[in-house]
User: What shape does this take?
Amino acid sequence: MKASDLFVQALENENVEYIFGIPGEENLDLLDSLSRSKIKLILTRHEQAAGFMAATYGRLTGKAGVCLSTLGPGATNLVTAAAYAQLGGMPMLMITGQKPIKSSKQGHFQIVDIVDTMRPLTKYTRQIVSSSNIPSRVREAFRLAEEERPGAVHLELPEDIASEETSAKPLRASLARRATAEKKSIFAAVQLIKKAKHPLLVIGAAANRKLTSRMLKRFIDHTCIPFVTTQMGKGVVDERDPRFLGNAALSSGDFVHRAVEQADLIINVGHDVIEKPPFFMEENGVEVIHVNFFSAKVDPVYFPQVEVLGDIANSVWQICEQLEEQPCWDFSYFDKVRQATAENHREGANDARFPVYPQRLVADVRKVMPDDGIIALDNGVYKIWFARNYLAHSPNTVLLDNALATMGAGLPSAMAARMVFPDRKVMAICGDGGFMMNSQELETAVRLNMQLVVLILRDNAYGMIKWKQANMGFENFGLDYGNPDFVKYAESYGAHGHRVESAEQLVPLLEKCNDSPGVHVIDVQVDYSENDRILNHEIQEKSQLI
Assistant: This one.
């Protein structure tokens, strides 16, 4: 068979459903082979968006999402998406084309060394130099992309290799089971937890990648130990749970940080160094148990005393089996933190001022989204408000990026979530700046007949940086811009455009759009003028009174 047919068969062998991307001249053999495959090609309007979609598919399924580009500029457009997947622990395979490698008729036209470009951004990057190597290269790429810690991999398929004849056959995936924690590490962890007076559970990004939710809920119910989450750990356990203290959305000084400061033992489940640490270790007697698939990367602020390495769910189950609620545990301070957090979340939730205040916006979105509804956040200051104030009810229902923290990923991520879960409500929440970085994918969403709500939070500026600028005492400078008429812009793509004129209009409009077919773009003005006062000063002052 033709080598490109073999390549597609190898992808089918890995149960690939979709390939997101933009083919080029160097991919035409592969495109021809795909035309006879059950794999669906999702043609996007930018390679970066294709990468974000593939990464989010991987994040939600645990299977490597696949994206495709041509050589040169098409491939370099995948660089940001590669970093997004690699830092975020999302399994993704990038396939790029290349000029013939056995002979050259065009010199170095469009040729960039993409294999080396991808090296610091991936777990694995290879050029396929022979059709006989295709089965092993594809199998190895998927194996590495999906095993802990997941991430990005890359294969370059030159056009002359793709057109070769070959008799090679695809390789079947091997059965692999994750290792379980060694009994002595479980025993050491149990002993530390038993003797602690104020143990606290911290749930991080890695716990949201596998099916750890049930075991962590059982652990919390069994021990009654309170818990907090990092931004990428949101939703692993239902945040309506009475033991939930809050989310570490701010770097320091929030109510949740007071709980961390009071703890004498932190059970850190799924900690990933890509996130800002929810606490800083010092030589002050606080002990830390690191529960993860892989060992801790020790640095000046993180040096756990006990490491429990292996499948997280199994480790939590083993620890839970040997624990009972201890009479020495005292959670009275944590109860005060919980109450203070809940009271703070209610502040501003019904504020009728317009433009809409962030607290009201978050509360209204939570009202209209069902328990399993998914919000996909782009990157901006609103991400902090949603991480703090939006209670996630189920795992992976708040898709935010606190790793690369890139702008432009919100809309493509929501589109991928809609494809993975076609029966669930999905909403993209984007700042006007982030939305415009990949707004062209509205055409893709309309073409695919998606039912999707896109909420654009308009402040006509790069609001996150304005907040930082104010916090550092600088004058407002260099961060304001203009925007198109988002209603007309949406309609030009065949989507439905809406504009919010008052705070009271938001909930009815969101409900209507959530239940109507088609792509709905909602333009809502937001007022971030209180961000510096509330996030940098008021919260810290109130939290110190607990």
